[in-house]
């Protein structure tokens, strides 16, 4: 294990914000994880696990304990008829894994193209886009259990996957370090084309798009929304969606309907969202007086998507938090709905 001190965390995140980690280890193997955990335990240091850094906001003070970056690599695969099983190291880059699956003609993750971050981070918030979620193909998650100091395999039921949730960010937050993820994909399966954006992209086409055409389409759509990390595009210096799409109760929905009527507005409704009783957080933000491209000092709202808060250059974490609070307060005032942040806030 290579122990480093006072390491800047900002360059390891897509927002490029945050202070230093007092101690830092990049774990290339399970043994490094065990050694790092033992070090933190001996020194009584708080532990924070970093993946690809695409879904975190690190405080300006940084992290007072040990930041452990999971760099475990390797992709093994085996097959049984048309089911291909991929066992993937947590430190592998998610989009490179998707590219590999698509190039091998394996269906199941093509809609999750262009999502930044590491493979090991994806089960934590059950990453999803365009109708697919990692929970649909994950068959096992290999973890280091900090409670028992043992490595174990968790099946999907153990993971308690929900919309942007799992046991890893709810009930047992901080207990498990993800070491690897097993996905089962379908060789030769058709692409998933449930979402309106994707269907529109292919409208007028007779033959079913291939997996790689679907991957390209998703990447292009994401790029138009600033949700694809594109060097030189200031709108992509973000943590993706900063708020979850709220899931409403019947009573909340009633109230929302009342308020929209008073304002002569209509909440956009999509089958894919309404099936899960979700409404568009981006729409709520835009209809609370915030426009895309809203600027506040060094931070702002992406000019391409109302849900992405961006670092326009030289921003601090406290500026992002102030903007987050301002949006949450205004949306609650106007719509009676409290938006929940989606990224993990670290060191606050
Ligand atoms: N909309 C607006 N203003 C905007 C953008 C969107 O009003 O600036 C409305 C539109 O009506 C639009 C609808 O919201 O049609 C849905 O927007 P979009 O398709 O962009 O999806 P989203 O619900 O905002 C979710 C995920 C994204 C994922 C996309 C695509 C969450 C919080 N976000 O966004 O995931 O890529 O769907 O499936 O669930 C992420 O989690 O970080 C993330 C980027």
Tell me what the structure shows.
With 348 residues, the chain is α+β, with helices and mostly antiparallel strands. It folds into three domains: 3-70, 2-Layer Sandwich (Uridine Diphospho-n-acetylenolpyruvylglucosamine Reductase, domain 2); 75-224, Uridine Diphospho-n-acetylenolpyruvylglucosamine Reductase, domain 3 (2-Layer Sandwich), CATH 3.30.465; 238-346, UDP-N-acetylenolpyruvoylglucosamine reductase, C-terminal domain (Uridine Diphospho-n-acetylenolpyruvylglucosamine Reductase, domain 1). Helices cover 26% and strands 24% of the residues. The chain is built from nine helices and 17 strands. It has helices spanning 30-42, 94-103, 156-159, 196-201, 211-224, 250-262, 271-274, 281-286, 317-335, and strands spanning 3-8, 20-27, 47-50, 56-58, 63-70, 75-80, 83-89, 106-107, 128-129, 132-133, 138-145, 150-154, 176-187, 295-296, 299-301, 309-311, 344-346. Strands 6, 7, 8, 11, 12 and 13 form a six-stranded antiparallel β-sheet that branches. A four-stranded mixed β-sheet has the order 1-2-5-3, with helices on one face. Strands 14-15-16 form a three-stranded antiparallel β-sheet, covered by helices on one side. A hairpin with a 7-residue loop joins strand 15 (299-301) and strand 16. The radius of gyration is 20 Å and the shape is globular. The structure holds uridine-diphosphate-2(N-acetylglucosaminyl) butyric acid.
């Amino acid at each position: 294990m290579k122990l480093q001190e006072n390491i800047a965390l900002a360059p390891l995140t897509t927002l490029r914000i945050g202070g230093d980690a007092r101690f830092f280890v990049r774990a290339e193997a399970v043994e490094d994880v065990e050694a790092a955990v033992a070090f933190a335990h001996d020194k009584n240091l708080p532990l924070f696990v970093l993946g690809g850094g695409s879904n975190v906001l690190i405080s300006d003070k940084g992290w007072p304990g040990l930041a452990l970056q999971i760099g475990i690599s390797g992709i093994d695969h085996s097959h049984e008829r048309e089911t291909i099983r991929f066992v993937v190291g947590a430190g592998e880059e998610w989009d490179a894994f998707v590219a590999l699956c698509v190039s091998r003609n394996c269906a199941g993750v093509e809609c999750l193209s262009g999502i930044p971050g590491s493979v090991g981070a994806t089960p934590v918030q059950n990453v999803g886009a365009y109708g697919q979620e990692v929970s649909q193909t994950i068959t096992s998650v290999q973890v280091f259990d900090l409670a028992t100091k043992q490595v174990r395999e968790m099946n999907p039921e153990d993971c308690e996957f929900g919309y942007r949730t799992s046991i890893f960010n709810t009930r047992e937050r901080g207990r498990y370090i993800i070491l690897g993820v097993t996905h089962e994909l379908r060789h030769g399966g058709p692409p998933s084309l449930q979402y309106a954006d994707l269907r529109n992209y292919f409208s007028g086409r007779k033959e079913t798009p291939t997996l790689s055409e679907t991957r390209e389409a998703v990447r292009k759509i994401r790029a138009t929304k600033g949700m694809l990390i594109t060097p030189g595009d200031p709108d992509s210096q973000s943590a993706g969606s900063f708020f979850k799409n709220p899931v409403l109760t019947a009573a909340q929905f009633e109230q929302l309907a009342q308020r929209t009527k008073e304002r002569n507005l209509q909440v956009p409704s999509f089958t894919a969202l309404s099936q899960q009783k979700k409404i568009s957080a981006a729409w709520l933000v835009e209809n609370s007086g915030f426009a895309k491209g809203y600027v506040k000092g060094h931070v702002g709202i992406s000019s391409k998507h109302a849900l992405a808060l961006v670092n326009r250059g030289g921003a601090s974490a406290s500026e992002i938090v102030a903007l987050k609070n301002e949006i949450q307060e205004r949306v609650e005032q106007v719509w009676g709905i409290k938006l929940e942040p989606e990224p993990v806030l670290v060191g606050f």
